[in-house]
Amino acid sequence: MLTSERKTHILKALHRDGRIVAKAVSQELGLSEDTIRRDLRELAGQGLLQRVHGGALPASPAVADLAARQSLSPEGKTTLGRAAAKMVKPGQVIFLDGGTTAIQVARHLDPNLKATFVTHSPNVAVALADHTGIEVELIGGRLFRHSMVAVGAIAAEAIARIRADLYFLGVTGVHAEIGLTTGDSEEAAIKRALSRQAAETVVLASREKLGAVSQFLIQPLADIDVLVVEGSLPMEVIDPFQQAGTTIAFA
Fold first, then answer.
1. Strand partners for 164
2. How confident is the model at residue 58 (pLDDT cuts 50, 70, 90)?
3. Which keywords, in A-to-Z order, does the entry hold (predicted)?
4. What span, in angstroms and rounded, lies between the C-alpha atoms of 156 and 140?
5. DSSP labels for 29-58?
6. Across 126-147, average pLDDT
7. DSSP string over the chain
8. Cα–Cα distance measured from residue 91 to residue 115, given in angstroms and rounded to the nearest whole number
9. At residue 138, does pLDDT exceed 90?
10. Do residues 111 and 79 both lie within one domain?
11. Using CA atoms, how far apart are residues 168 and 228, in angstroms rounded to an integer?
12. What average pLDDT score do residues 48-55 get?
């Protein structure tokens, strides 16, 4: 079997089963595990899967840069943003993460809402600025251009001095076993800091993020309060999270 044929087989199996076990594929194809592991390394290098011990899981397309992510699930993110905006109550202090879904939250807030929003994303702060009843606190730090958010020690210190009622957490991957992941270690650390300072953490996850994994763990699913997903998703996509005991809200 040619290398290209093996890789096509691997990707089809990953799409079908949601995971790849290197030993099982090697036995199925009558090839060595070393050969399959080499294929997995090369496919991971192309961003087509995420290697884990013994095999691979689907890689999240949401690790692309901000401009590219704007074209991923635009309708789904709008739906999630609208649902999240309705969860905000007057007088609350809200942590709002960076990213395209967070901008949709800002755009769908009640125009008459009076609340305080804290964000480490300049883009999100600009989107919030249109709401005259909202106080906007912008967390500073080193700008991580990939996601247009502040990271580093300065950001972490500022976050530690704030207590929020609610944190809308953005992720690139949500996996029932692995947990919540993203593509940068410093960004993951800031997300953990925000979650620690919030009374409630809500994850907004569009379809392409569910069942996918990125390189850096933010936290286990058990550490969040609610996972908000699109109401139109098939139940086989939702079942693993329900079986894991995650509280799910449908947008």
1. 198
2. confident
3. DNA-binding, Repressor, Transcription, Transcription regulation
4. 9
5. HT--HHHHHHHHHHHHHTTS-EEETTEEEP
6. 94
7. --HHHHHHHHHHHHHHHS-EEHHHHHHHHT--HHHHHHHHHHHHHTTS-EEETTEEEPBPGGGS-HHHHTTSSHHHHHHHHHHHHHT--TT-EEEE-SSHHHHHHHHTS-TT--EEEEES-HHHHHHHTT-TTEEEEE--SEEETTTTEEESHHHHHHHTT--BSEEEE--SEEETTTEEEES-HHHHHHHHHHHHTBS-EEEE--GGGBT-B-SEEEE-GGG-SEEEE-TTS-HHHHHHHHHTT--EEE-
8. 5
9. yes
10. yes
11. 10
12. 89
Range(s) of the domain holding residue 113:
66-250
Is 93 found in the same domain as 16? no
Neighbouring CB atoms inside 10 A of 72's CB total 18
What was the pLDDT predicted at 64?
60
| Same domain membership, residue 106 and residue 208 | yes
Upper half-sphere CA count for residue 210 (Cβ side, 13 Å): 23
Q: Into how many domains does the chain fold?
A: 2
Q: What is the mean pLDDT of residues 176-182?
A: 95
CA-to-CA distance for 55 and 240, rounded, in angstroms?
Answer: 19
Instruction: Report pTM.
Output: 0.85
Co-location of 206 and 145 in the same domain: yes
